[in-house]
Batch of 3 targets.
Target 1
Amino acid sequence: MTTLLVIAKEPRPGRVKTRLTPPFTPREAAALAEASLADTLDTVARTPATRRVLVLDGAPGPWLPPGFEVVPQCAGGLDERLAAAFAACTGPSLLIGMDTPQVTPELLTVDFADCDACFGPAEDGGFWALGLAAPDPALLRGVPMSTPHTGAVQRGRLAGLRVRDLPCLRDVDTAYDAEVVAKAAPGGRFAAELERLTTEAR
């Protein structure tokens, strides 16, 4: 069984989803981030796992379902924070972010019996998921984050391992991303929140 890690920021206005402004206000962008995080955590809660860990920058809120350990993110760049999340794990672990509310339990149910790593590329050149059968923080340290080449560099770090590639998903970064992702998961809180905000703006 796998440890499922979610790395996230507390959805506070001005601190999350800044590329959604405009057209959305910082408060609206934070509401969309909260809905995305809530959908993600709900999916993780419904996925078989040994542990469910929220690696959080900030404080938990009412969006946090039961059954999660909450640990603070360490200082440093995103590569250091991801590495530290894996360093706290002792067995097979899969890490995702809060920007893909369209994930499903099926996507997150990973069997490491025939692979050493799982890698989920993102449309923007990053990655939405990284799984390691034997967590090694050195595989993440020094990877340049938030660039069009982040995914390729991280995938390259897995050279020599048996890697299972997961489907490519779209992160929610821009308003266009939000529309596409909402259509991919029309029954979620993210889609409902986007619909509410869009309706109010008319």
Target 2
Amino acid sequence: MSPRLQATLMPWLVVAGLFAAWELLVIVAGLPPFVLPAPTAVFAALAEFAGPITHHALHTLGTTVVGFALSVAGGVALGVAVGSSAVAYRSLFPVLIGFNSIPKVAIVPVLIIWFGIGAVPAIITACLISFFPITVNVATGIATLEPELRDVLRSLGASRLDILRKVGLPRAAPYFFASLKIAITLAFVGSIISETVGSNEGVGYLMIQASSRFQIPLVFAALLVVAAMGVAMYFVFAILERRMTFWATRGVDAGYATGG
């Protein structure tokens, strides 16, 4: 088997093995569907409720993408500002760490009071929860520029803006694209947290409604859809990372991103 074919087949084989083990566990333990549904029951629910699942999944995807886009814009801007200044780096990093330590689920009720039930709290939560890794990675990429290289560029007449634009930002690009793969999965978490607390649409809302009716297979079907969307978005940014930072991407990451 060629390495490319092996890299393509192995993830699918692992997933198939996990589903088989899950099915066997349910059968052997005799677990009822309202405790742990078998994969066959989950896929049956996925087919039966395909319409509602698709509607709520698209809503969650939309709020996640919008919130993620806001986090990218704000995270890059703040990361550049923090990474370009040693004073800002030392001053703002404790604030960023402290803010990131706050459970975002505790903020959702406040957002609902401010903006009402709907998509806005989900967008803001997705933005807040995915903001930190982007900011930190961009700031780290810029701040770790070698002092010797900075001194050489200044001796050649380069201004701080020139160093940032021509060296700092390209240096931070691998950090930035790596952070996107992490941040997009966190954005899904933020959207669903908000939808479970206060929303009338989205996968989180669907899961709460299904749980209240003890439709546990539907809950697991919704979780599988979220997992599939997260994996798909991860691979989108993994491929984008390789295309944009091929000069810095390690071979193992590049092969994983493209299946070869």
Target 3
Amino acid sequence: MKEKHANKPIDPRELRDALGQFATGVTVITCFDQHGKPVGMTASSFNSLSLEPALVLWSIGKGSSNFEAFNSCSHFNIHILKHDQGDLAYQFASKDGDRFADVKLAQGDQNAPAMEDCLVRFECSLNANHDGGDHRLLIGKVEKLQHNDGEALAFYRSKFAGLLA
């Protein structure tokens, strides 16, 4: 096992590779920017925080092209993807094209774009926004949730995989 000593800085690439050993779920997170335009991105930095009150958290890099929209939004939706939605995860991770192309959004009074086809959707109001080094930690209060039967998409060692029970 490789070991790092406290007196030597951790190489960011090595840290990223080590963190890649931890399998995570895959989400698409959406909001509206200050002009009402839908914004969305793929993220695996999602976690539960509290059951009472219902709080979830995720983080966004300060260098992300979506940073300003999410850093200033009042609401966001977190969509946990199904095992067969790797292409959708890539679509929202891409820097090119319309991320919302061919994505069916729910109609109605939405505070953030709500994808219809996902395993789980958490509709959140912003509860807190904290500094986290080169990221911001966004804590959402879950206002509504919708969940469907199915299997989750996972991310492990920089690759997507189905997470089957």
